[in-house]
Amino acid sequence: MKIKPRLGGGKSGDPSLYIDIVDRKRAILFDCGLNNFRPAALHKVTDVFISHTHIDHFIGFDALLRLNLTEEKIIHVYGPPGICRNVIGKLQGYTWNICQNLRLIIVVHEILPETIVVTSLESWRGFEIKQTEEQPHTDLLLDTGEFSVKYLELDHKTPCFGYTFLEAESCNVRKEALEELGLQPGPWAGQLKAQAFPTADQDAVIQIDGMNYSLDELARKLLVRKPGVKITYLTDFLLHEADIARIIEFTRYSDFLFCEAAFIEHEREKARLTHHLTAREAGILAHGAQVKQLVLFHFSRRYQDHALMLDEARQEFPWVE
Ligand SMILES: [Zn+2]
Ligand SMILES: [Zn+2]
């Protein structure tokens, strides 16, 4: 898959991370603050994962709703305890007496400590609650087979969820091996990947140009495993010493860690009071989790000079943007 993450509010605007799954005509959002995403981008959104419902993380939900109302689609909204009340509160802020042409369904997944409450709301019924069901609790909120999303609870004086997106492992055909075997690329390569990954049936056979080959043997010679892209999003939390190990575990080997850095160490007290992170702490987490790239955001507007936060994080971890 081709995956492109981008922030919708820049470094000091409201948090929203758009993960575009380019070749699947699908996108997911981590948080939904005021953002600069185009309507076409918001049309692609199928799943929204909300960290917490402070206004700067949730106000953009209205634009998402507005743009998708007449689309025949489902938008799933996931979030911490209270998310269902928050979504319904937004919907009840509008009048829905003429709604017969609306098509959107919103399904809210409220993650409680021991269960997940799933509530369906249909636009053409004025978003009256259609049904509510309880599912067993899991930290794996979404698994499409091609990618998955997990959450981790953080402390922001209210439960605040961090999220991680993980593309499933896939495989590529090694060109050199293809030449060594004297094979020409063709549709059979797709068939090989589909049938032989992650494991091949020992007795299965694949036909190429009229010749039979052992699927398992060909897979072992030709295919190379490609790890999936991992993107972790952590925002709005106090870093308790006791939580560091579990946050690092959750974030480990991310290709991108999008992490808030509201304050600099010099103003650590302000960070403590508002349950936010400092840039140095973001750097420590990135270093501990051995991520490839740390992307800082949610800078307090008090800092005109973004280099303050970027340089501070770089003292702990080199690859910061
Ligand atoms: Zn907040
Ligand atoms: Zn915030």
UniProtKB/TrEMBL annotation:
<protein>
    <submittedName>
        <fullName>Ribonuclease Z</fullName>
    </submittedName>
</protein>
<dbReference type="InterPro" id="IPR001279">
    <property type="entry name" value="Metallo-B-lactamas"/>
</dbReference>
<feature type="domain" description="Metallo-beta-lactamase">
    <location>
        <begin position="21"/>
        <end position="66"/>
    </location>
</feature>
<dbReference type="InterPro" id="IPR036866">
    <property type="entry name" value="RibonucZ/Hydroxyglut_hydro"/>
</dbReference>
<dbReference type="GO" id="GO:0042781">
    <property type="term" value="F:3'-tRNA processing endoribonuclease activity"/>
</dbReference>
<dbReference type="Pfam" id="PF00753">
    <property type="entry name" value="Lactamase_B"/>
</dbReference>
